[in-house]
Amino acid sequence: MRDITGCVAMISGANRGIGEAIAAALHADGWALSLGARSLASLEASVASYRTDDHGPAITLHRHDATDPEAAARWTAETVAAHGRIDCLVNNAGVAHTGGIFDTPEAALDEMWEVNAKGPLRMIRATLDHLRRSGEGRIVNVISMSGKRVRGTFAPGYAMTKHAATAMHHAVRHATFGDGIRCTAVCPGFVQTDMTADSGVDPSLMIQPEDLAAAVATILRLPNTASVAELLVTIEPETIA
């Protein structure tokens, strides 16, 4: 396992659900954090559960709206100004609209493309030079099992954007491997968060955000010689077509 002392991780959508759990796990592991979300107030509330004193790794909070084309560059500049470096980027921010393939409104489709597909690419472009400079840069793209398969008629517009995110992930993985950057796509099934509250799936059967976060923290400690391209985490047997 590699030493991450002094390393800095940026995490989008860090104010709730999977992002909050990853932030808590990485903070406990010793990472300094630059956390982004649309609401600074919700970020403040989320970090209160694990920032217990002022002596642990530094945490900075930033307003980040993935639909804003300028937001990635702005947040990156703020992170470098506050922390001096960037060693890891966790693209976690996401949005889901569950309309059918023929009736999802255009505005809903546009928002999902902006947040789920274009947003992560913008963040990678903005942070790339800093991740290269690290020598052991890490990118974690939190995607979904919906980026690996289409399940009946469930949220096809969402699946379209997540498939695009998977394609982007692998393109970036190949393009940055020689720079010492290692990229992992995390593709969970149903995770017990507010996003899945109305899914109809028994919450007791869902993946816990903390378990997913523990897996991510472990992957981020692996050396460059042990790269995990994809992590598929499901609550039931799946056929990946």
Structure report:
This protein is of the alpha/beta class. Helices cover 40% and strands 15% of the residues. The chain has six helices and seven strands, in the order βαβαβαβαβαβαβ. The chain has a seven-stranded parallel sheet with strand order 3-2-1-4-5-6-7, with helices on both faces. Helix 2 (40-47) links the parallel strand 2 (32-37) and strand 3. Helix 1 crosses helix 6 (209-220) and helix 4 (106-134) packs parallel to helix 5 (156-176). The longest helix is centred in the middle third of the chain and has 29 residues, at 106-134. The protein starts with 7 loop residues before the first strand and ends in an 8-residue tail after the last strand.
Short description:
By secondary structure, the chain is an alpha/beta fold.
| Coarse shape | globular
User: Gap between N and C termini, in Å?
Assistant: 34 Å
Percent of residues in helices: 25-40%
Radius of gyration: 17 Å
The count of β-strands is: 7
Bin the strand percentage. 5-15%
The DSSP helix count reads 6
The SSE string, one letter per element, is EHEHEHEHEHEHE
Low-confidence stretches: none
| Mean pLDDT over all positions | 93
Biggest sheet details: 7 strands, parallel
In what order do the strands lie side by side in the largest sheet? 3-2-1-4-5-6-7
Derived structural class: alpha/beta
